[in-house]
Amino acid sequence: MIEEMYDMIFKRKSFRRFNAALHLSNDELQCIHEKLKRLKPLVDDIEVKCKLVPIEQTTSKRGEYCLLIYSEEKEHYLQNAGYLFEQLDLYLASKNIGMCWYGMGKTEVASLDGLKFVIMLALGKGIEGEFRKDYTKAKRKDTKDIWPGDLISKVAEVVKYAPSSCNTQPWRVG
Fold first, then answer.
1. pLDDT of residue 91
2. 33 φ, ψ (degrees, to nearest 5)
3. Closest Cα partner for 67 from 27, 113, 101, 17?
4. What is the pLDDT of residues 5-20, one digit of tens each?
5. CA neighbor of 46 nearest in space, from 68, 83, 82, 74
6. CB burial class (10 A; 0-12, 13-18, 19+) of residue 53?
7. What are the residue ranges spanned by the domains of the chain?
8. What is the C-alpha to C-alpha distance for residues 47 and 37, in angstroms, rounded to an integer?
9. CATH architecture of residue range(s) 2-130
10. For residue range 23-73, what is the model confidence (pLDDT) as tens digits?
11. Taking a C-beta distance cutoff of 8 angstroms, is the pair 18, 64 a contact?
12. What is the 3-state secondary structure (H, E, C) of 25-83?
């Protein structure tokens, strides 16, 4: 499981365009629902719920479905949501399902069971060739710009390929 997720770091990419001819099957949708139940939180005591809806129920113009993420507002709730759903991102890549974190997306449902809407993920079926083939060609900052000081070279080279909003890589390891 861990090895498969690691391998997906190099395959996954943010999908800005989805192939409208491809559709998620009922089995794939069921697998997504099952995976959602098995995600491991960063912070155990933050309640998080999600809702998978057709894009027509959102402002998204991407994908076939959107996963709406709602969270209890506590310290580190945004990091917790990111941690949870990056696991899903890697899982989806392993199933040739593309996704895009859609931070500007809106939904008519601003809360779910008292939890605040945080972000949505646009999802759609992809084909193997649409995923990243050579991760080293992805636009990224030089490793030394995000990891000053002594490098743990293998770790540093993987960290820089972690997703970030518009590939801005705002993190620093120090």
1. 93
2. -60, -40
3. 101
4. 788 877 888 788 888 8
5. 74
6. middle
7. 2-130, 139-174
8. 13
9. 3-Layer(aba) Sandwich (3.40)
10. 999 999 999 999 999 999 999 999 999 999 999 999 998 899 999 999 999
11. yes
12. CHHHHHHHHHHHHHCCCCCCCCCEEEEEEEHHHECCCCCCEEEEEEECCCCCHHHHHHH
d(CA 96, CA 25): 12
Between residues 1 and 69, which one has the greater pLDDT?
69
| Distance of alpha carbon 114 from alpha carbon 64, whole angstroms | 27
Per the listing, tokens 């998620």 go with 24
Which of 35-39, 69-73, 87-91, 126-130 comes out lowest in average pLDDT?
Answer: 126-130
pLDDT at 169 over 80: no
Do the beta carbons of residue 47 and residue 84 sit within 8 Å?
A: no
Please state, in angstroms and rounded to a whole number, the distance separating the CA atoms of residues 152 and 147. Answer: 9
Residue with tokens 């309640």: 47
State how far the Cα of 28 lies from the Cα of 114, in Å rounded to an integer: 29
Burial class (CB in 10 A: 0-12, 13-18, 19+), 37: exposed
Question: pTM of the full predicted structure?
Answer: 0.81
Q: Hey, what amino acid is at 76?
A: H
Whole-angstrom distance, CA of residue 94 vs CA of residue 7? 9
**The two structure tokens encoding residue 148:** 């000053």
